[in-house]
Task: structure prediction
Amino acid sequence: MTSAYESDPIFETVPRQLSNLVTRIHGREIALPNFQRDFVWDATRTEELIQSIISEFPVGTLLLWKQGGGETFASRSFEGAPDLGDKKPSELVLDGQQRLTALYQALTGVGDERFYLKIDEFVDVATDYVKDFHEVDFDKAVTSVPVAAGKGQAKKNDELLEASHFPVSEVGKFDDWLDEYVDEVTSGDCTYGPKRLKSLYRRMRDKYVVPLRSYGVPVLTLPEATPIEAVCTIFETLNRTGKPLGPFELLTARYFPQGVNLRDLWDEALGNYKALIDFKVDPYSVLQAVCLRAHGSAQRSDVLKKLTASDISAHWSSAVKGVAGVLDMLQSDCGVVAPKWLPYGMLLIPMGAVWAEIQKLEPLDRANAYTRLQQFFWCSVFTTNYDQGANSQAGADYSRLKEWAVRGDGPAPEAVEELPLTASTLQSASVRRKALYCGLMCLLVTMRAEDFHTGQAMTPYRVREVRIDSHHIFPKAYLSRVGAKESPELLLNRTLIDAETNRIIRDKAPSQYLSEMATAYGEDKLQSVLSSHAIESGANSGLAIDDYAMFLDQRLSTVMQLIERVTGRKLE
Result:
């Protein structure tokens, strides 16, 4: 009886002859899905690949996906291969496009370069010896020249190429080429006869030329029935450095034959909404918002299995406008003045999914809906509700936001009513708690936190142009010098400070740099700035007397009040 450990694997790697792969590409049996990137290799990389092939070194595994009579994916031919036309390929290449395209072009004589083997570099004619691979100077043995675009390039190629340069694209006609070559080199004063030379070069052929046809390339073929979500996972595992294959790319290929071009839709969205570019929104997020609207789920498996082309047609525009609208609201009303301060990108999905319904409301009702949506944002951030299980959370929140945020009916999302907000969590949180950290910075902006130099409120422009960033209030070096027990990396020890002010602060005690800043900017202005950053700054404050523990307690009290105001919740 065969145990589970001895049974055949679901996916097997089987070598295929290189000549067979080239023939099937040329015959349009093997093609590329439309989501694959273009061919980008230069001639040097192709030369190195040819070197590995003829040396019979490993060149990596190809990943193919068998196609059948089921779902049709948009596909295209390899660069330089015959156009697919109406033909449906039997296999699509998921990983290995660059290698296969390079070999196909080299072996069929298409593309921008032509490749050659200088056969004299592989042999020692005087000793009648075929060199081992480590004895071959491959820089000379494997070469390429650009395709001649005019007489000048053609002349240059003639100067570079010698009689012993065998064109790789003629690999199936080597013996005919060899007869002509030997006739040429023995027609004059030659020490060695034709029979001896042909015997030597045929042994060289068997060692270095034949692999260009017979080399067994390892191919992992996914069965036709492989679930689409498994295809994504497998591709992402094998293709860490190339273009990632995500649900958006896969669904782009799926919907194209149905008249829905996701790539064009996304390009149009980027052209219409600059915020999508500024915040580097992933188009998959829009698909998740569409899936929420159509099926109530943002789970990857549901995006891949349940989402249809008709769902895209019905909800794409609303989802795009929703995500862009939410970003605009977060920037203008919630202090998200830069992409780095967005606490959770995932929050854009449920909020964006309900946006269209909010826009249909009368102005006063719409204003109330915006307020509830912002409350949901702040509660989700300060309860860190999206740290785990974000896809599931988005679905659960959307089911409630549809009624509560839009009309004020039904139960509120759990972050608004059911999850605790704790002062202890905030007190001990470090800057590694991204949602809390970003949330605090955004909250300070909504309080019109002022630039330390100009007293002007923070804006996206000022944050970018004046290089305003998060810095320590009590300098880290100072705290280390005085042996402070509390960590310098607590988020309560951070605020938004411009680069020049941060240089003034350096490693100084707060009392010292406050005195210098008061002298430079005036006491009233300094007090106003510090207050806008939720920093108590009186003469007996922790900051003024260099008491870090007191400062943390005082700032916690102030920050708690700010959080309670925007969340409508009482911190425990």
Residues 1-9 have pLDDT under 50 and may be disordered.
